[in-house]
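Good morning C.,

I know you're traveling, so I'll keep this short. The sequence:
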Amino acid sequence: MKTDIQEYLADYEVRYIVENAIKESVQKKLKDDLERLVSNATYEVVSEFITKIWNNDPRLEMKLREGVKEQVENGSTIKFNLFRKADAFDRRRGQEDSVGQQIFEQAVRDNGGAIREKVEATVKDLGFDDVKSLVMESVHILWEESNA
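The tokens, ready to paste straight into the viewer:
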């Protein structure tokens, strides 16, 4: 069975119903995504503001480079973010490991031979008492964790 809506409603009534449905849909979407929308709008405004300032003062690039260098060398919080490994949640959102973490992992791969040599030399130099101490420490840690 097929019903022609125009037999029951005038064009202005159909338009009114459609406009209200669209209005409700937009309001619901705004309500559900308000934080994201505000965040995105704020980002756009701040980004535009910073770009204007940045383009008008070439000293800012030098200050930024100096600030980044200082934070990498001295800042504890930045080290966490600089060498951040993406977790499952990050990967689902399309985020990867931080650039610092990628560089770090590449450096480890590039120096794999030297690292292997150092590990082998260290293991070779371990005596019975060293191994015994490491085993006892590991057992103690496992025991503490299982009783926690």
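Safe travels,
E.
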